Amino acid sequence: MLIKKKTVTLKDVAKKAGVSSSTVSRVISKNPKISPMTTEKVLKCMEELGYHPNAIARSLVSRKAGTIGVIMPSTSKDALLNPFFPEALRGITHRASKSGYDILLSTNDNKNEELAVIKKYINSSKVDGIILMSSEVQDECVEYLSSVDFPFAIIGSPDEGGDRINHVDNDNYMATYELTRYLTMKGRKNIAMIAGDLSLMVTKKRIEGFKKALEESNLKFDQEKVYTGSFDEKTGYQYASIITDLKPIPDAVIITDDLVAFAAVRLFKQLKLEIPKDIAVASFNNSILSRYSNPPLTSVDVNALTLGEEAINLIVRAIEKGERGNKIITPHIIYKRKSTEDD
Amino acid sequence: MLIKKKTVTLKDVAKKAGVSSSTVSRVISKNPKISPMTTEKVLKCMEELGYHPNAIARSLVSRKAGTIGVIMPSTSKDALLNPFFPEALRGITHRASKSGYDILLSTNDNKNEELAVIKKYINSSKVDGIILMSSEVQDECVEYLSSVDFPFAIIGSPDEGGDRINHVDNDNYMATYELTRYLTMKGRKNIAMIAGDLSLMVTKKRIEGFKKALEESNLKFDQEKVYTGSFDEKTGYQYASIITDLKPIPDAVIITDDLVAFAAVRLFKQLKLEIPKDIAVASFNNSILSRYSNPPLTSVDVNALTLGEEAINLIVRAIEKGERGNKIITPHIIYKRKSTEDD
DNA sequence: CTGAAAGCGCTTACAG
DNA sequence: CTGAAAGCGCTTACAG
């Protein structure tokens, strides 16, 4: 058994400094009413005793946990393999610490569990606010958080009630519109799309942007050529092989994740399709994979780091000022690479 | 301004149930002395009032935060891009929630900040224990945690004092030994190594294993052919080009990260070297990259998920039973793929 | 500018 | 099996 060092409390400091607890407390919270002399004396005693305020005790009385809960999506087990999440997480932790908050991280296996975690965090008063790293169509977690009016922010877009829900997102509609238009300008006329999980808001938006761009290019939007399903390696192969079975084979494909695109590219190459000559490939996330692919892939950088940082800005305002319905659109960048550039 | 719903406290439940606070508290903590009748009555009142115990208040009196701090390494900015970390994180959060702990996550930009975060966590009583996701030679964070005897565990190996420090690791020495021996059995006689950051313990161990295997194979260990430096894309290109400038060019190279290996492979191919005929490539982490590479890369799977889970097991025992110096070795698997198999 | 007192929401010996 | 009381380490009106 280890010898438990008696913890130094505010009281000890007060006694040593010959002042009241109130005064010490005020020095800690930098209350300007305390005289410089007293402040200095107290500070010195704190130093000498090695005193550190107990965050738990402060939380109890101030009713602020000083903590933000971050909920990783349950959608896909390999979600964390997608560099989007770690990158956004980095933005979150970084900005949070600057804003004086700690991050409570949770992963979960399914939506029920996700909701349970959220309720636990809220009911136990462990967090002051919550960030949802993704949102689904008809997301029950979003609905719950809205219904109890607990401070929260979404990375992504809510299905509905966007004017009441804090969220930060790229303009996925516009990004996909631009990407598609770029392909049509390059002369592509038969464009397929591997769009991701249809229960995700992002998927919905991207398909809309895709559709709009085709229409404006006087190309037919063919629902049959929009493939939806979970994001993983298999998906890439699977849909890519369906696509190559089409007659005629599409001359371009937009894929909503580099990982999936990478897998698709491999199949195309196995089938001796030349990229971009026979089929152009454009994807999202601009991960290292897209740069390392052969040929390098044109990809939309969604700037996950910024999304994470802005999510913290939103949640802090929600917590400290009660703000709701703030919306931030962060810029995306289309990196044009060999996979779509034939010249 | 939102109407602040008065929070339901234990007292409210007590009043409604017509019992004392003590009794309600005992029901919460499932104290077996409370009669079934009373328990039921209290439970019913809790239900009806929508009562949930306040974790902060419990923490204050029980002196347990119910939280484990996880420190991401500061070594490399793109550390989170390496799938090792997200994967380990998933193991951590998953097992932690099963053990009744929440995870406080921190990233930081440098070692000083890392130490500052650790001190903050400890001094403010926000965490019951700390997991370090990597360890350096002469790691000041390890030294600090040891000196104050705060419960902590390392994913990786400590530089010294291993018998007093809880840690979970692969046998990196053995893994690299095996990998090297495998290459020598395949007839490779001139093996180089891109070993990673020399300040990391893992680098040290792997180099030792490499050396040992060469000696046992009666091959000369040439310090000149062990390249150390930070883990990033550039490193791959850089050292790969140094290697290809050697005369004769090595017939195999071991690279301690898939990402770096991937970059190296690209350069080899640009220089028209055939893999594995001219140069075999073996790496670590078995990320998706290694499978997607052309040719697919032989890679050591370190099983990051398990490392994360075991780290929680260690820290929980450290917190709840005061255990120190526990050591867990988790198995690695060498996935042999085309990049080393010529036949 | 400073202090005494009450209280944040719980737990835990102690007593019965 | 249950309750009254003290206390965890802080903050914050209130009073001066």
Task: Provide structural commentary.
The structure is a homodimer of 343-residue chains. The first copy, chain A, is built from 13 helices and twelve strands. Chain A has 343 residues and is an alpha/beta fold. Chain A has three domains: 9-45, 434 Repressor (Amino-terminal Domain), CATH 1.10.260.40; 67-170 and 305-332, Response regulator (Rossmann fold, 3-Layer(aba) Sandwich); 172-301, Response regulator (Rossmann fold). The first copy, chain A, has a six-stranded parallel sheet, with helices on both faces. A six-stranded mixed sheet of chain A has the order 7-6-8-9-10-12, with helices on both faces. The longest helix of chain A is centred in the C-terminal third of the chain and has 18 residues, at 304-321. Chain A is elongated, with a radius of gyration of 26 Å. In chain A, 49% of the residues are buried. The mean pLDDT of chain A is 90. The interface between A and B is large, with 48 and 47 residues. Strand 2 (102-106) of chain A pairs antiparallel with strand 2 of chain B. Chain B binds a DNA duplex (16 and 16 nucleotides) through helix 2 and helix 4.
